[in-house]
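Morning. Coffee machine broken again, so started the prediction first thing and wrote up yesterday's gels while waiting. Chain of 53 residues, entered below exactly as on the submission form.
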Amino acid sequence: MSLKAALERRAGEQEALLEEARVFARRVRERLGEAQVYVFGSVVRGDFNLVVW
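Came back before lunch.
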């Protein structure tokens, strides 16, 4: 796999995880009303590791 392809894959994985967080935040707001939801850590920084079993 080329470096470019690996970086594109990584960006796609990060975006998928952030989309999961967006969906969760919408569900929280639907249930609790107005709420602030923060995502922090390795996913936001982009240095996360996915473990596939």
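The helical segments are 3-32, 42-45. Going to sketch it on the whiteboard this afternoon.
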